[in-house]
Amino acid sequence: MRDRRLLLIYAIILIDVVVGSAIGPIMPEFVKGLEHPQVWLSVGTALFLGVQLFAAPMLGKISDGYGRRPVMIVSAIGTFLADCLLLPVRASLYFVNRFSDGLTNGMYATVRSAITDISAKDELFKNLGIEGAIISLGFVIGPMVAGLLLTVLNVPEGQQATYVAGLAVSLSALNIGLSFLLRETHPQPSGIRGKELRDEVALSVNVLTLWSRLNAKGRLHPGLLQLVLMQVALTFSIGYYFYFVAFVSVGELQMDAKAISYFFIYFGTLSIAINYVFYTYFADRINQRRAIFWLALLGTPVLAAYGLLGTSLVGLYVVVTIDCLTISLIQGLIEGLMAQRTSDEDRGEIFGLNQAMQGLASFVTTLVFGALSLIDLRLPYAWFAACLAVVAWLAHRKF
Fold first, then answer.
1. What does the pLDDT look like over 43-57, one tens digit per residue?
2. What is the 3-state secondary structure (H, E, C) of the chain?
3. Does the pLDDT at position 226 exceed 60?
4. pTM, rounded to two decimals
């Protein structure tokens, strides 16, 4: 029988992703009056992801010391307060939202630690794979609910952002309640002294210490560092998730909020089905490293193809279908291999450090694709494809 805590964690993840994906299509509204809006969207993304450099390791350390539940409660409250900032549709508050929401988005390191805490060894890949499928489901439901809200209420174009932001606030409030219902998953939280926490904050703020700390963990858990590097390269490549809204709204496709919502519904629905089947029936029966290699190798030309679509909506849907069969499956495999190289004592810390490296990679890739988009809106996809090729190369090397 599945642990009820696992089901509750899945529900919290689902609502959190629904909130984030629902507001995605309205983000261009906050910066449309600024010059080069695609660059300002990239800046907002950089704030959201870059702040996790210090937030994720800190939250991971706290979850090892005090448990996963308190961190998830604080994160849910932080998301609620950040979403409240979106109710006045102003560019300045958009940037404040991106920064403040990024502070508590480090909870995903804690989420993965909690799932690993209560998963049997033979179900670890399956449970983390279901997490990936649920994230994909959230990407479906978020735009779908936002699109239905705007359609059923026939909301005028100038008020759409306010309505969707109100929806996000309501759902994030619900997640606060669910987080309080969650029972602790950490088997033996040992506590953490004030000095240890201050030291963790100081270390987390210093980006240069991230790699040295991971290197120390790598000596305890062989193969961990190569997986972290693989995760970093993958994060560089999946920066296209954050660039996509700007690309299709400002570029040749000229998609509006409803068209973007419908696209994400298709993308997410297909991704859910494929992820569920793959992680339920195949992921723990195959050579995961070899699978990462082939999926990344086949996915590289797919990323390049996004930049060559022109005005073809049919082409966009064909490319994203192949995307779901390749690129979208890689993340869960890396996370599963990484989870196997943790222990109860340092699981939250390792996932936190890894998420901080992902935050650093996301920050860098955002700066890169923002700069490339000023030259040509299609150029960032060459960068994304090259980074995915690096994932394939790293996976080809033995751990």
1. 787 778 777 766 777
2. CCCHHHHHHHHHHHHHHHHHHHHHHHHHHHHCCCCCHHHHHHHHHHHHHHCHHHHHHHHHHHHHHHCHHHHHHHHHHHHHHHHHCCCCCCHHHHHHHHHHHHHHCCHHHHHHHHHHHCCCHHHHHHHHHHHHHHHHHHHHHHHHHHHHHHHHCCCCHHHHHHHHHHHHHHHHHHHHHHHHHCCCCCCCCCCCCHHHHHHHHHHHHCCHHHHHHHHHHHHHCCCHHHHHHHHHHHHHHCCHHHHHHHHHHHCCCCCCHHHHHHHHHHHHHHHHHHHHHHHHHCHHHCCHHHHHHHHHHHHHHHHHHHCCCCCCHHHHHHHHHHHHHCHHHHHHHHHHHHHCCCCCCCHHHHHHHHHHHHHHHHHHHHHHHHHHHHHCCCCHHHHHHHHHHHHHHHHHCCC
3. yes
4. 0.72
